[in-house]
Amino acid sequence: MPDLNKLNQAILDGDAKTAASVTKEALEAGVDPVVLIQQHMVPAMDEVGRLYEAEEYFVPELLLAARAMKASLELLRPLLAESGAEPTGRVVIGTVKGDLHDIGKNLVGSMLEGGGFEVIDLGADVAPEKFIEAIQTRGARIVCLSALLTVTMPSMKKTIEALEQAGVRNQVKVLVGGAPVTPQFAKEIGADGYGETANAAVALARQFVQR
Amino acid sequence: MSNPRQRVNDAVERRSGPVPVDFGATSVTGIHVSVVAALRDHYGLEKRPVKIHEPLQMLGWVEDDLKVAMGIDTEGVFRRRTMFGYPNENWKPWNFNGLDVLVPEKFNTTVDANGDTLIYPEGDLSAAPSGRMPKGFHFFDAIIRQNHFDPDNLNPEDNCEEFKPLAEADVDAIAADVARAHATGRYVIAGFGGTAFGDIALVPGTFLKDPRGIRDITEWYVSLRSRRDYVHAVFERQCEVGIANLARIHEKVGSQVGAVFLCGTDFGTQTSAFCSKATFDELWLPHYRRVCDWVHANTAWKCFKHSCGSVGRFIPSFIEAGFDILNPVQCSATGMDPEHLKRTYGDLIAFWGGGVDTQQTLPFGTPAEVREQVLSRCEVFSRGGGFVFNSIHNIQAGTPVANVVAMLDAVREFNGRN
Predict the structure, then answer these.
(1) For an interface test with A, which of B137, B200, B230 has the most A Cβ atoms less than 10 Å from its Cβ?
(2) Topology annotation, domain A90-210
(3) Which CATH architecture has domain B4-90+144-417?
(4) ipTM confidence score
(5) Contacts with A182 from chain B: Cβ below 8 Å
(6) Rounded Cα distance, B338 and B332, in Å
């Protein structure tokens, strides 16, 4: 049996090779994938989030930790699918129509994944109908909308309006974020929450699934 | 009454006087082409298509008649080749979302199946496109063309294709442009290129036909932590070539240039930073210091640094490196309160920007709200000199002309009172 604390440490260190090898060894030793996620990956990514909030970690460290977490998760995903284990929640995330920036969106997506959520990442410049499709066909119950540009903020409003017109708005919670977005703007466009940071987005998503 | 060049000079030297104004003289203090066109209409200037001189952000050229109408005190000199690698010459008509504009001969685009506009490096339609503008929107963004690389066998030279000695023709063209700019009587700020270390807008190499090395944005950010020797080697080479190019340019242009826009790498996010101060001090500070030291030792130019976001923690290092001017002074970011910045750093660095917020107030506020913010910012930042008025980064597409006019009128009002 490998020392599973090494998985936590590998994620904190952003060491993808070690994260994958410890995960592999643990699976071979019969450790339950859900235990690996809930008792090791989620606490490690929570700690990464804490270090980011405390400004001990910055974008490079966050990206590296996310890579390490994903290297482990890649090995666990097929097993989770086989066992029918449910994620903490199902999130669809994307940068809104007209906006091609995705660093912030990727960071939030990774932190949500690290928080035990299944993340359906639609990429950047995403049309409202793609969010609707993910809600209808993949069961996403949280929608995360990102924008970096002032001029693409109206696409957030249009996306929420499209969710309403498609009759799916009541099935989901909508979370918005990005440099020019403010809590006031989130309220004005009818979003359910505003995440100033990746950590705040995870905390809100957790609140949504607990309700 | 001082002349435009003197006004900016005084401000940059942190001497009291009227607040000078810059719009359009750099790629980070410009105006979206649609707003330039609307301003020309507002001021009743001759109707003619505006030139798009910076194609990534679709910035419009602010011609002399508009500069006079807006009360602009600066004149820009740009590197000869644009973000898509072609020179700004031989203009041709183009229609941009219904607006007739002019673009250079090699601004070559296609439209894909989604209706998005694709643009090509050096205008070469046989190369892979390097920029994309979503249908109906306002800017291009880089298309990431990351060739396969072996992480264990990276060669820094691959990331240095763009850092090479300028061709003699390019130096001559720059010299001619500096002479043109100087003859206007305005303060010349020049972005010669080549010294922007790790600027994330430049990393993807939108101007290269087949970029090698690390060109993916995420991969580059990761490298700041995991491949520091590689990043250092790239910066080292860039620094060497950049200084050599500045020396050749300086030989031809001398003190006709007031300030040189050395680097636009963003270190701040809205609430925090892209990297730690320790990372900055290790990776950037030595190279910045070397460039600024060379400029100060060999020229009369001032060193201009742009970085968006919450950069309070980096300002002491910017000053230590030798930067004389900070832009865009994003007061809406965490820790960037104008009063705090002025009180703490006002004796050490000049603020070029910070005049009005372009995330909220200028695009979405009322003219009265714009006026109020502009008067307040002028009051704080101009105390004892050290302030060149500019909005916080370029004026964005969709900004109401009434707000831009309210902004300019407020600067005039402030100058009239003081």
Answers:
(1) B137
(2) Rossmann fold (3.40.50)
(3) Alpha-Beta Barrel (3.20)
(4) 0.92
(5) 360
(6) 9
